[in-house]
Amino acid sequence: MAMPVLPLNDGTSIPSLGFGTGTFWFKEGGEGPLDIKLVDTLKTAISLGLNHLDCADSYGTEEEVGLAVKESGVSREKLFVTTKVLDNVGDIPKAIDASLAKLQMDYVDLYLIHTPYYTEDKSELQRAWKAMEEVKKSGKAKSIGVSNFQRPHLETILNVAEIIPTVNQIEFHPYLQRSNDYIPWMKEQGIEVSAFKGLAPMTVAKGGPLDETLALIAQKHDTDKNSVLLKWHMSQNVVPVTTTSKEERLRQYLQAIQLNLSAEEQEEITQIGLKHHFRWWGTQFFDVDDRS
Fold it and tell me: pTM of the predicted model, to two decimals?
């Protein structure tokens, strides 16, 4: 099955579903021995058609992604590789070179500032974005963007941006749909949304009001709840990035591509999700009831 893509504001496009190498695969301190299990899982994902691979310098998994791509037998141009900068965000030219060396690549498809919370200095955030623009101009990243940015952070860099971010990768799922029309506002600026922890209602937030609804919809379509949740994202032109160590789960994720949810089913998930609030990442930066 062909992987659908979402056009980006710079003329490139991003595959609509991604395989992430954080969370389960994360190495404390971004360091550790080569994880052969991850390499094998990545090669399986690629062989199944999951061609969008997501990593970060702080995950410590760039080497595994690079090795998996090299051993996959799939040409580099048919794959979409994202990495993020955090550990060396103060020297982005050095950071991208270090990431490319670990990835054994000449370029990445998408390069993201991993978080804005490393600084409270707006000018420092603006300097980082100008350095990202130079990375794109150099050809070392086809597209550039951000992650975990709230609207004030985006407005800070948009004030000086020559190149608009293509993507903001944020936590997004039915229990965290982002208030104050943040998603529509980003799309109005030409910024697309990628989502991590999209399966939260069935994993870290399991036991919420969507459990029964997701089960019923999955049963109706002869699929699983993970596929239903992923399709809920994709139907909104949000790109979910998720992970697993199991081939069976990878196949379930890919079922989302061909799944067709009705408008009523999509809206039911949305409305029930709005009744419950859960945030997994960055709780120290938000009030308990803050849904932004």
Answer: 0.97
